[in-house]
Amino acid sequence: MKKFFLAAVAISALCSSCETTDDTLLSETNYKSLNAQKTKGLTNTDYETYRNVVENFVYNSDQSYIDNVVSFEKHVNRTLKSDTQANTYESINLEQLKMLLEKHENIIDELHYSAEFKEYLYHIVHKNNVVDFQLKDEKENRLMYTLFKVHNDNKGNGNDDKLNKRRTIAFAYGNQYSFKQAVLYAGAIELKTKIN
Predict the structure, then answer these.
(1) Which UniProt keywords apply (predicted)?
(2) 27: helix, strand or coil
(3) Where are the alpha helices (DSSP H) in 44-178?
(4) Cα separation of 62 and 43, whole Å?
(5) Helix, strand, coil fractions of the chain, as percent rounded to 5
(6) How many CA atoms lie within 13 A of 121 on its CB side?
(7) Which listed site, 20, 21, 32, 84, has its alpha carbon 20 to 30 Å from 192?
(8) Whole-angstrom Cα distance, residue 140 to residue 133?
(9) 57-81, pLDDT tens digit by residue?
(10) CA 129/CA 148 separation, integer angstroms
(11) Rounded to an integer, what distance in angstroms lies between the CA atom of residue 180 and that of residue 82?
C-alpha cells in the first residue's frame, strides 16, 4: 500500500510540474482571438517577437552597415524558428533591401495583399492614422495590427517617421513570404538608426 501511495504522489508531482499549455495551441488561440480583443488591449505577439529579436541584436559600430545586416540575418535565423516545417535558413536579398531603403512610395501597390489591406496600409504610412480596421481576411487583419504597432513603435526607437516609414513597409513586404522575412527586412531597415 505504501508503494502505491508513493507512486501516486510521484506521478501527481510529475504531472503538476509539467507545463500544461502547448505553445502551438496557445499561439493558435491568440491568433483566433486577436481580432475580437484587439481593442481591449491585447498585446500582439508578432510585434513583441519582432521587438525582442531586434532589441537582442548587438550592433557592432566597428563594422559596416552591410556587415551588421549579415550578422543580423544570422541572429534572426538562430532566434526564430521558420514558418515552414523545415527550419530553413532565410536570407536578406541585399538588392531588395536597397530598393526598400530607397524607394517606398509605390511599393504598397506592388504588395500581394487585398486592395482593402493596401488602403489601410496607405493610411498608416502616409496619413499616420487608420480608422477602426476590420479586414475580412484574418491573416491580413493580424498583420495590419502588427504593422500599426511597428509604425507607432515607441520602444526607444521613435515611430517609423524617423525611418521614413520604411520599416513598416519592409515588414509588410517580408511578411508576404514569411514572418521571418518580415523580421529580417524590417530589422535591417531599423539598423539604419544605429549608424553614427
Answers:
(1) Signal
(2) helix
(3) 45-55, 65-79, 94-102, 107-110, 115-127, 138-151, 166-175
(4) 36
(5) 65, 0, 35
(6) 31
(7) 84
(8) 11
(9) 999 999 999 999 999 999 999 998 7
(10) 9
(11) 6
Specify the residue for cell string 506521478.
11
- What single-letter amino acid sits at 16? S
Biggest CA–CA distance in the chain, Å, is 77
CA angle 77, 111, 151 (to 5 degrees): 65
Q: How far is Cα 32 from Cα 37, in angstroms, rounded to an integer?
A: 10
Least confident of 35-49, 104-118, 119-133, 142-156: 35-49
Q: What is the pLDDT of residues 122-163, one digit of tens each?
A: 888 877 665 566 777 788 888 888 888 888 775 545 556 667
Q: What's the sign of the alpha-carbon dihedral 32, 37, 43, 46?
A: positive
3-state SS, residue 3: helix
Residue ranges per domain, the chain?
42-194
Nine cell digits for residue 136: 475580412
Grid cell for residue 155: 520602444
Q: Which residues contact 149 (CB under 8 A, 6 or more apart)?
A: 44, 47
Q: The cell 499549455 sits on which residue?
A: 21
Taken as a whole, the chain contains a residue count of 196
